[in-house]
Specification:
Layout (H helix, E strand, L loop, with lengths): L7 H134 L4 H22 L1
């Protein structure tokens, strides 16, 4: 049996099957298909009518919107003009108040800086006195030769460094 050759019986059965299928479809499926197409056509027409109405409404609303925008712009310009004059008045009041406050803050800061400076001086004096007393007590307890003198200086420097690290 050759696949490319034409067989009369096969063609006949194919035609008969096709005709039977058409008759069955026409009797069963064709009415429902045509009904669905009619309903679809009706729905499309209604949608087109609704779209046309929506377009007309959109045009009307657009005109109303433009009128409202123009009115709002006019009112906004009036508000802006009134706001500018109020802002200028407030600006001068705020600047005067800010200048007074800044002068008070500067005076207070200078006072605090001076107090902190005095406090720092007192702390430095206390540290110097303590170091002097420690060094003097070490000198009194021991007669120093140059080697001991250098060791004592290095020890005092190390204590100062350690003291700074421990304080922080």
């Amino acid at each position: 049996m050759d696949l490319l050759s034409v067989h009369g019986g096969l063609i006949g059965w194919t035609i008969i099957t096709f005709i039977v299928l058409l008759v069955v479809l026409k009797a069963t499926a064709w009415p429902s298909i045509l009904g669905a197409l009619d309903e679809r056509e009706k729905a499309i027409r209604e949608s087109l009518k609704a779209a046309e109405k929506a377009k007309e409404d959109a045009v009307r609303i657009s005109k109303e919107y433009e009128e409202m925008i123009n009115k709002a712009r006019h009112e906004a310009q009036e508000i802006i003009n009134a706001g500018k004059s109020t802002a200028e008045k407030m600006k001068s009041e705020i600047l005067a108040e800010a200048q007074t406050k800044s002068q008070n803050i500067i005076a207070k800061a200078k006072t605090e800086i001076e107090q902190e400076r005095e406090k720092a001086k007192e702390e430095i004096r206390g540290v110097v006195v303590e170091l002097t007393i420690n060094t003097a007590s070490k000198l009194i307890s021991k007669v120093l030769d140059p080697k001991d003198h250098l060791a004592l200086i290095n020890q005092s420097i190390d204590e100062i460094k350690i003291g700074k690290v421990n304080e922080n």
